[in-house]
Amino acid sequence: MKSIQKLNWGIMGAGIIAHKMADALKITPGCILNAIASKTPAKAKTFANIHRVPNVFSYEEIVSSQEIDIVYVATTHNFHFENARLALEHNKHVLIEKPFVVNAKEAQELVRIARKKKLFLMEAIWTRFLPSVILLKSKIQNKEIGTVKQFNISFGVFVSPEYEKRLKDPALAGGVTLDLGIYPISFVCYLLEEVPIHIKSMTHFSEQGVDETANYVFEFPSGCLANICTSYNLKMKNEAHIYGTKGFIEFPQFSTGERFFVHKHEGTNEIINTTEILEKNNENGFIYQVEEVINCIHQGRLESTIISLDETIAIMEIMDKMREEWGFTYPFE
Questions:
Q1: Could you report the per-residue pLDDT of 168-189, keeping only the tens digit for each?
Q2: Which of 24, 34, 40, 307 is positioned for an S-S bond with 286, CB 3.0–4.6 A?
Q3: Residues 6+ away with beta carbon under 8 Å from 154
Q4: Is 104 within 8 Å of 313 (Cβ atoms)?
Q5: If pLDDT is split at 50, 70 and 90, which confidence band does 127 have?
Q6: Res 4 pLDDT > 60
Q7: Based on the structure, what is the number of domains in the chain?
């Protein structure tokens, strides 16, 4: 691959999430959005006109282009594996919109190819890179509320019409866990720097046959427990409560909020101090994961320390185990 000064990006898929990424690339130094590809050429042309993208390609053309350094996969979940594999096989660095793929077996294969070819690969779990979330993690790792013992997280919405087809269709790898549930799962693993050793879960299936509302209970090696509830058909409070031996943290607007509250005690029921913490995030939070990609590639790193490939696989394994408990497989698996 040619020497990289500015990274030339190509995007596969021209849906809603691709537009947000295109906007992020425009305002992040060191990036050029060189090409858009879609299975629907008219959609790609419209996208190119909106974002002034010079090239409208097929999938084969975008991965074959000598002008492209990295491909962002923004297609529906069911196509992530084949699209990312195609890009890696053509020696492109790859950023994949979450969820990375549909199951751990697919994740392991992409990681194998990337490591063999010495290419950068990362899951775009953009919330991990937000300044507010990074600051929150520092508070927890510095034990400002003592040893963390419990997470309670709710994350649910009535899905809006533009996302409805993708979330509700089994053929598109729909369901709340891969789409919304992955955020609190990843959030807890990131803050604790652990993955759970015991997993229990249950779900309610939609009429279309995907997980519509789900509850997860995790136990971590440290002894911390996490309770997570999520749904694409309920309006929830969308907040995290993190309980430690010396206090607790309230984090509203899970998990993209800018404000959280640290309540401290001395091992009793009396709160002795409450601090409100505000850490601003850019309106387009995608810029932080883009910056991470740029830094990693320029430094010759093939994966991010903020979301390692081994952790991505481990989180896919968590979701596989829960789907196995439910007897739920996708029609294409």
A1: 999 999 999 999 999 999 999 9
A2: 24
A3: 228, 229, 230, 236, 237, 238, 239, 254
A4: yes
A5: very high
A6: no
A7: 2
- Which CATH number do you get for residue 62? 3.40.50.720
* 208 located within any domain: yes
Q: Indicate the residue among 69, 101, 125 that finishes a domain.
A: 125
Shared domain for 114 and 175, answered yes or no, is no
CATH number at residue 275: 3.30.360.10
Of 300, 302, 298, 322, give the one whose Cα is nearest residue 310.
302
CA nearest 35: which of 52, 15, 20?
52
Q: How far apart are CA 191 and CA 226, in angstroms?
A: 12
Q: Does 290 fall in a domain?
A: no
Tell me which residue of 4, 253, 271, 298 sits closest to 130, measured CA to CA.
253
Reported as a single tens digit per residue, the pLDDT across 264-317 is 999 999 999 999 999 999 999 999 999 999 999 999 999 999 999 999 999 999
Structural domain boundaries enclosing 164:
131-280+316-326
Per-residue pLDDT at 12 exceeds 50: yes
Answer whether residue 285 is part of any domain: no
The terminus-to-terminus CA distance of the chain in angstroms comes to 34
User: Does residue 104 sit in the same domain as residue 168?
Assistant: no
Tell whether 121 and 247 lie within a shared domain: no
CA dihedral of residues 156, 161, 164, 166 (deg, nearest 10): -120
Q: What is the pTM of this model?
A: 0.96
Give per-residue pLDDT as tens, 18-60: 999 999 999 999 999 999 999 999 999 999 999 999 999 999 9
> DSSP H helical segments within the chain, as ranges?
16-27, 41-51, 59-64, 80-89, 104-117, 131-141, 161-168, 176, 182-192, 286-298, 309-326
Separation CA 223–CA 217 (nearest Å): 13
| Residues 6+ away with beta carbon under 8 Å from 144 | 246, 247, 262, 264
Contacts of 80 (CB under 8 A, 6+ apart): 73, 96, 97, 99, 100, 101, 102, 106
Looking at the structure, do residues 194 and 85 belong to the same domain, yes or no? no
